[in-house]
Amino acid sequence: MKLHRIIAIIWRHYFEAIHNLDKLVDMFYWPILDIIVWGFLSIYLFHNTQTSAIVGFLLGAAILWGAFYSLQRDLSGGFLDELWSRNLVNLFSTPISIWEYLIGLVSVNFIKMIVGFIVASLFAWAFYAFNIFPFSFSLLPFFLNLIFFALAMGIFTTALILRYSTKIQTLAWSFAGVFQPISCVFYPLSTLPAWLQLPAWFLPTTHAFEGMRQVLQFGTFSSLHFWWGLCLDFIYLFLSVIFFKYIFDVAKMKGILVKME
Predict the structure, then answer these.
(1) Are 30 and 77 in contact (CB under 8 A)?
(2) Would you give the end-to-end CA distance of the chain in angstroms?
(3) How far is CA 21 from CA 15, 16, 24, 29, 169, in A?
(4) Mind giving me the DSSP string for 144-197?
(5) What are the residues whose beta carbons fall under 8 Å from the beta carbon of 247, sequence distance 6 or more?
(6) CB count, 10 Å around CB of 231?
(7) SS3 sequence of 209-247
(8) Mind giving me the DSSP string for 101-153?
(9) What does the alpha-carbon distance between residue 125 and residue 133 come to, in Å, rounded to a whole number?
(10) Where does residue 131 fall: left (phi above 0), alpha (psi -120 to 50 degrees), or beta otherwise?
(11) Buried-most residue among 17, 104, 115, 257 (CB within 10 A)?
(12) How many CB atoms lie within 10 A of CB 156?
């Protein structure tokens, strides 16, 4: 594995981004739009319930979910860019390995996610007086849990796109949304019916947002939710990498790479 090849992937997406308005807009538009929508809802709830904690829960959840969703989406979307530009064969005809490409893709989209997170946090602070930064140290472990799970989901969906091409490209934007209702993003786990609470317990996102609410409401750190989420992250990330490697080997053996559209 060569570092300069990984850096080359990062530069490839950087130059595309600075010459493509759509790529730049995605980094700012969706995070800001989410904060606007949930910010107004939070204000409405605050004036009708007089419970200021609700504002923090909703805006904090919107910021963290936006970061999680953008990393998963852009990881799969970055691979789709190679398909749309018919650059996949050219890319893998070079000495670059699949792991160098994957690390480069993860790195560039991680940077984009951080930019979006900072923009959303500053916007929430400036327009809704919600400052997430004082909680940064306590929220960081749960934020990392979300990042690891987003990577696992992004690698998994990328593998599916590699196998089935653009026929299932909508997974890049919709896959994370499947888990949102039982990830307890905007409401506690106890809100779910009993039969849904068990599967929700096995999602790292559930533990991340349950931990976030405990930090914002009580100022305490939940070791239980952190370690549960982290262990699940490692399991899902390991399985997604194994699955990706298997699909890539199948794609090479069957000549799928040169047939992809």
Answers:
(1) no
(2) 28
(3) 12, 9, 5, 11, 21
(4) HHHHHHHHHHHHHHHHHHHHHGGGGTTHHHHHHHHHSTTTTSSS-GGGS-HHHH
(5) 159, 160, 162, 163
(6) 13
(7) HHHHHHHHHHCCCCHHHHHHHHHHHHHHHHHHHHHHHHH
(8) HHHHHHHHHHHHHHHHHHHHHHHHHHHH----GGGHHHHHHHHHHHHHHHHHH
(9) 9
(10) beta
(11) 104
(12) 23
State the greatest distance between any 2 C-alpha atoms of the chain, in Å, as a whole number. Answer: 62
* Token duo for residue 153: 């989901």
Residue 261 is which amino acid?
A: E
258: DSSP letter: G
CB distance 80 to 172 below 8 Å: yes
Question: Degrees (nearest 5) of the Cα angle 81, 106, 157?
Answer: 60
φ/ψ of residue 70, rounded to 5: -65, -35
- The answer for residues whose C-beta is within 8 angstroms of residue 180's C-beta and 6 or more apart is 65
Q: Specify the DSSP class assigned to residue 205.
A: H
One digit per residue, the tens of pLDDT, for the chain of length 261 reads 777 677 777 776 666 666 665 555 566 665 666 666 556 556 656 655 545 566 667 778 888 888 888 888 888 877 777 777 777 767 767 777 778 888 888 888 888 888 888 888 888 888 777 788 887 788 889 999 999 999 999 889 888 888 777 677 777 777 777 788 888 888 888 888 888 889 999 999 999 999 988 888 788 888 999 999 999 999 999 999 999 989 888 877 776 665 655
Q: Which of 114, 95, 116, 113 is nearest to 8 (CA)?
A: 95
Tokens standing for 222?
Answer: 């939940």
- Nearest partner of 146 among 244, 68, 255, 235, judged by Cα: 68
